[in-house]
Structure formats: C-alpha cells, structure tokens
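Lab meeting minutes (informal)
Scribe: AK
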Amino acid sequence: MSDDEREALAAEGEQSIAEQGRQANDERHAEHAERPVTGKSRHDGSGWSLY
C-alpha cells in the first residue's frame, strides 16, 4: 500500500468517525428534547443524606 493510499484511507476513516460522533450527539440531543420538563433536576438530592 502506497503512502498516498494509506493517507486517503486514514482521511476516510477520520471522516467516518467524525460522522458517527455527530450522529451520536444528535441522538443524545433528540432524547433530551423528548423528555418532559418536570421542573426539578434529575438529581435534586431529595431523600438522600450523608448522615
């Protein structure tokens, strides 16, 4: 495999990884947008004590 072929393959792999990362971020943002807003945070500390 020539250096040019190796560089082209590496660039293609980097683009693929970047696209997968963007898709994962989009999915996370979509899931967050679908959750109803209840007015309290997920971890409000209610019912927890260190003592």
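Next up, CB showed the second protein from the same session:
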Amino acid sequence: MIIDAEKFALAVVSSSSSELSIKEKIKLYEDAVQTVKDYNQPQIENQQQQNIDNAEAFLKIF
C-alpha cells in the first residue's frame, strides 16, 4: 500500500503536541514526508518493474 506522504505528514503534525513551535512542526512535517517517501520507494519500484514485465509479456504476444 502506497501512503500519501503529504496527507500523512499533515496528520502527524495535527496530532502533535500544541507545545511544539512552528519551526518544530515544520521540521516534523518535513521528516514525516521523507519517511513516507522512503517507505513507499520499494513499493513504487516493484510496481514499475511489474508494469515493465507486463508490457514486455504483452509485446511478445504480437
């Protein structure tokens, strides 16, 4: 499952402590976005490879 990085980061910041400064919340947002992008990357690469494999299999038919 690929997670929407921006929506997830907004949820993280929304649920964070109200005692955090704006600067800390921005850093939290940026860190959350990067964490989700890193998490999603292997899944995206697998999906891309599967698309390539499917296209190659389709072209072999013709």
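CB comment: The helical segments are 5-14, 22-61.
No objections, moving on.
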